[in-house]
Design goal:
Blueprint lengths: L7 H5 L21 H21 L5 H21 L9 H29 L6 H11 L3 H7 L18 H26 L5 H23 L4 H6 L1 H17 L7 H21 L2 H4 L6 H12 L3 H6 L2 H8 L1 H18 L7 H26 L13 H10 L1 H35 L28 H4 L5 H4 L25 E2 L6 E6 L1 H4 L2 H11 L2 E6 L16 H17 L3 E5 L16 H12 L4 E4 L15 H8 L7 E2 L11 H5 L4 E4 L2 H4 L4 E2 L2 E2 L2 E2 L9 H6 L1 H12 L2
Parallel strand pairs: 2-3, 2-4, 4-5, 5-7
Antiparallel strand pairs: 1-3, 6-8, 9-10
C-alpha cells in the first residue's frame, strides 16, 4: 500500500506542457494527466476492497510506487533543468512534508487514542513502536525488524501495517531531492549536461540492481524482501525512467488505446491471479507494474474513463482513504471481537473510511498544502512568509494547525513509553497469594473467587527477569558473547550472589522463564543462579536435529566451554520440546538435548530437566494468546486444549535421565494441565503471557514445586 494523495500536488507541479525543448537536452514535459488521477483512485479502491473482503494484496501498492517515481522525481528533474534552479533542498522537503504529514499524524493520533481508550488487545508496545516508526517514515524497517510477515486483516494484525509503503515512498522522496540537488550543483559548472543525461545512468543502474536483488532475496527472506526499500526501489526507479523517456515513445492512437486497455486489465486482475504478499517485489510484480506503464503510454477510451469526474474525485481522496481504511478495519475487528472482519463490518469500514477521507481531504490536506511556486536561485521567501504570518488570518490558522500537528505527533511518539511504563508498574506489583495462589491451588490451597490477574494485555509485553535485565542473548546479539559477561559479575547473578554454590540455567526462552522461581529459591536456600540463555536456542553440544541456527550452535560452544570451566553444582534446563520445525507438535526429547546430557555426565555435573509447558498454536502457525482469549470469552472450554494435544503419554525424558547419575526429569505436565485440560487460568492467575511462555506470576507460584525436585540434586 502506498500514499496516493501524496502524488496529487506533485503531479500538478511542473507537469504542464511548456514550449517545445530539445529532446536531447531537457527532461520532457507533458500535459496534466487526469487519467492518472483516475488510475490512482481505482487502484486505491481495489486496495481497500481486497483488504476488506479478500485478504490479499491487490497490486495497488506497486502501481503507486511506480507513480511516485514517475511524478515526484520527474518534477524534481524538470526543476533541476532550469537555469535559475536553487540548490536549497528545504523547499521541496517542506512542501512534501506539508502535503503528507498532517493527514498521517491525524490518523495515527486518532487511532492510538481509540486503541488506548477502548481496545486493550491492541495496546501492545510493538504496535506503539510501529506508530512512531510510521510517523518518521521508517515503518518498513520496523516491520522487518519485528519479523512481521504481511498478513490479512484480523484482530491480531497491526493497524499500522499498511504504512510500510508510506515509509518506502518517503525514503525515495529524500533520495529524489538529494539526486536533484546533486544535478543542480553539477549543472552550475557544466550547464551543457541536462538532467536527463545525468540522471538516466544512475537510475538505470540502481533500478537494475534493485530488481535483481528483489528476485534473489525472495528466496532468502521474503518478509524482509517485501518491506525493504532497496528491493522496492526498482518499482520507483522504473517510474522515474518512464518519466524521463516515455514522452519520446511515439505510438499511433490505435496502439495507445490498446495499450491502455491491456494495462488496466493487468492492474485490476493482479489480485485475482497471484498472491503478491508471497512474491512481490520479485519478478511477478512486473505484471501490475507493466500494466501501469501501458496506461501511462496509452490513451483512448480507457483514458477517457479514468478521467471522469467521479474517478478523479476518488483519486483526490485516495491518500486519506488509504490511511484510514486499514486502522478502522483492524480496530473494529478487534473491538467487536471478530477473528476476521465480517461482510457487514467490512461494508461499514468502507463507508466510514470514505467519509473520513473526504473530511480529511477537505479540512486537513488542502488547507495545509504549500501554495506558492518553488523559489529560484537566490530567492528568499522567509521575509514574505513572516509578513503573511503577521497579517494573514489563513496563514495564522495554518500555523496553529501546524502546532497542533506537532503536539499530536509528540503524543504519538510518547505512546511506547506509556505502555512500557505500564509493563514496569505491573511487574513491580506483587499479587496477594491468599487471593491469587496460582499453582499452590493445585496442592489444595483454598482461594476466593476473583478476576484473574495480571492484566493479560500487559502480559503480552512482559518478559522474565533475566531477559528484562539484558542478561539473555537475543536475536542479533553476538553469539560469541555470553550475556552475563557484558556486566559486572553480580549484575546477572540471581539468588544469593555471595553463595559458593552455583546453579547454571541454560537453554532458550523456555528455560529462561524459570529464572523467577530459581531466584527466589536461591535467596531462600543459599545458592546463586547464573543464566546462560539465548532466544530460540536450546543448549546442546551438537545439533543432531538440523533445526537450530548457526548462531545458536556458535553460542552453545561458549556455553559448553564455560560449563566445563566452572563445573557448577547444578545445571537446569528443559528436557523436552515439540519439534514444530519438523511438523511434530507433541513434546519429545530432541536428539540434540542428549548431547548436552552426555557432556554433563562425563563432567560429573548434576542436571535438572524440566518438561516443557504446553504450546498453544493456531492453525495458521501463530501463537494463540490464550490469556487474552479467556479475558474476552470467559470460557475455559473455548480457551483450553486437552493434555494429549501437546503432551506424550509419558514424560519422554524420564527414562533417559533416570539412567544417568545425578540427573532428574521433572514431569511438569500436571502443573499446567490439571484434570488433563491445559487451561489459561490456575488459582486466579493467568498462566501464559503469550501462546507458549509462562507469565512470571505463575512461574513464581511454582517455586515450592520446583524446590521439591531441585533439593534432591543439591543434597538439601
Amino acid at each position: 500500500m502506498v500514499s496516493a494523495r501524496g502524488l496529487s500536488e506533485v503531479l500538478k507541479e511542473g507537469l504542464q506542457r511548456g514550449k517545445a525543448t530539445s529532446p536531447t537536452q531537457k527532461v520532457p514535459r507533458s500535459g496534466y494527466r487526469y487519467d492518472l488521477d483516475g488510475l490512482r483512485g481505482i487502484a486505491i479502491a481495489f486496495v481497500v476492497l481486497f483488504h476488506v473482503f479478500v485478504g490479499k494484496v491487490s497490486g495497488g501498492v506497486d502501481v503507486f510506487l511506480l507513480l511516485s517515481g514517475y511524478f515526484f522525481l520527474g518534477s524534481q528533474l524538470r526543476y533541476a533543468d532550469r537555469p535559475d534552479s536553487s540548490i536549497n533542498p528545504w523547499w521541496p522537503f517542506w512542501r512534501t512534508l506539508r502535503r503528507l504529514l498532517p493527514a498521517l499524524v491525524v490518523v495515527l493520533g486518532v487511532s492510538m487514542a481509540i486503541i488506548m481508550a477502548w481496545i486493550p488487545r491492541l495496546q501492545r508496545i510493538e504496535i506503539a513502536n510501529q506508530a512512531v516508526a510510521s510517523l518518521f517514515y521508517t515503518q518498513n524497517w520496523e516491520l522487518a525488524a519485528q519479523g512481521a510477515s504481511y498478513e490479512a486483516a484480523s484482530a491480531e494484525v497491526s493497524p499500522f501495517q499498511h504504512l510500510w509503503s508510506m515509509a518506502v515512498q518517503g525514503q525515495f522522496y529524500l533520495f529524489a531531492i538529494a539526486l536533484s540537488m546533486v544535478i543542480i550543483l553539477i549543472r552550475r559548472y557544466r550547464p551543457e549536461y541536462a538532467a536527463l543525461q545525468l540522471a538516466t545512468p544512475v537510475l538505470a543502474v540502481l533500478t537494475s540492481v534493485s530488481f535483481f536483488s528483489a528476485v534473489v532475496w525472495h528466496f532468502v527472506d521474503q518478509s524482509v524482501n517485501y518491506y525493504s526499500t532497496f528491493t522496492r526501489f526498482w518499482e520507483l526507479g522504473l517510474g522515474a525512467l518512464l518519466a524521463l523517456h516515455a514522452p519520446r515513445i511515439l505510438l499511433s492512437e490505435k496502439t495507445k488505446s490498446i495499450l491502455a486497455a491491456v494495462g488496466l486489465f493487468m492492474v485490476l486482475s493482479t489480485g485475482f491471479i497471484m498472491d503478491g504478499a508471497q512474491t512481490f517485489p520479485g519478478a511477478p510484480a512486473l505484471y501490475p507494474i507493466l500494466g501501469a506503464c501501458l496506461i501511462i503510454l496509452g490513451d483512448g477510451k480507457v483514458s477517457v474513463f479514468l478521467s471522469r469526474k467521479w474517478m478523479r474525485w476518488l483519486g483526490d481522496i485516495a491518500y486519506p482513504l488509504y490511511l484510514w481504511h486499514w486502522p478502522l478495519l483492524i480496530m473494529l475487528t478487534a473491538y467487536f471481537n471478530q477473528t476476521e472482519p465480517s461482510i457487514w463490518l467490512g461494508i461499514a469500514v468502507i463507508v466510514l473510511s470514505v467519509g473520513l477521507a473526504q473530511l480529511t481531504n477537505k479540512y486537513i490536506e488542502k488547507p495545509m498544502q504549500q501554495q506558492g511556486k518553488r523559489p529560484v536561485f537566490r530567492e528568499s521567501r522567509s521575509a514574505e512568509a513572516l509578513k503573511k504570518l503577521r497579517s494573514s488570518r489563513p496563514a495564522q490558522l495554518r500555523a496553529v494547525a501546524g502546532i497542533a500537528v506537532v503536539v499530536v505527533g509528540m503524543s504519538v511518539s510518547s505512546s511506547p513509553q506509556v505502555l512500557y511504563q505500564r509493563v514496569v508498574d505491573a511487574q513491580a506489583t506483587s499479587l496477594d497469594p491468599s487471593i491469587y495462589p496460582g499453582a499452590l491451588s493445585l496442592a489444595g490451597m483454598s482461594f476466593p473467587e476473583a478476576d484473574p490477574e495480571p492484566n493479560p494485555y500487559v502480559l503480552a509485553d512482559t518478559v522474565s527477569p533475566a531477559w528484562a535485565k539484558g542478561c539473555m542473548s537475543v536475536f542479533g546479539d553476538d553469539p560469541s558473547e555470553l550475556a552475563p559477561d557484558r556486566y559486572d559479575p553480580e549484575f546477572c547473578t540471581f539468588g544469593n550472589p555471595e553463595s559458593s554454590v552455583e546453579v547454571y540455567l541454560v537453554g532458550g526462552s523456555h528455560a529462561e522463564q524459570w529464572i523467577s522461581p530459581l531466584d527466589t529459591l536461591g535467596q531462600q536456600n543459599n545458592f546463586k543462579v547464573i543464566p546462560l540463555v539465548r532466544q530460540s536456542c536450546p543448549t546442546f553440544v551438537e545439533d543432531l536435529d538440523g533445526i537450530f541456527s548457526e548462531d545458536c550452535a556458535e553460542f552453545n560452544e561458549y556455553v559448553i566451554e564455560r560449563l566445563a570451566e566452572v563445573k557448577p553444582d547444578l545445571v537446569v534446563s528443559n528436557s523436552t520440546r515439540p519439534l514444530l520445525e519438523k511438523g511434530r507438535g507433541i513434546d519429545e526429547v530432541p536428539e540434540s538435548y542428549i548431547t548436552l546430557w552426555d557432556f554433563l555426565e562425563a563432567e560429573n555435573i548434576p542436571f535438572l530437566g524440566l518438561r516443557d509447558n504446553p504450546w498453544f498454536i493456531q492453525p495458521s502457525g501463530e501463537g494463540w494468546l490464550v490469556s487474552q482469549c479467556y479475558e474476552e470469552e470467559r470460557s475455559l472450554e473455548d480457551c483450553s486444549i486437552t493434555r494429549d494435544n501437546f503432551y506424550a503419554l509419558v514424560d519422554p525424558a524420564a527414562e533417559e535421565l533416570a539412567s544417568r547419575p545425578n540427573m532428574l526429569a521433572v514431569d511438569t505436565s500436571a502443573w499446567f494441565c490439571p484434570d488433563d485440560i491445559c487451561v489459561p487460568v490456575i488459582g486466579n492467575v493467568y498462566v501464559y503471557r503469550d501462546g507458549n511462555h509462562m507469565s512470571d506470576e505463575y512461574a513464581q507460584s511454582l517455586t515450592p514445586l520446583v524446590w521439591g525436585s531441585m533439593r534432591k540434586l543439591l543434597g538439601r
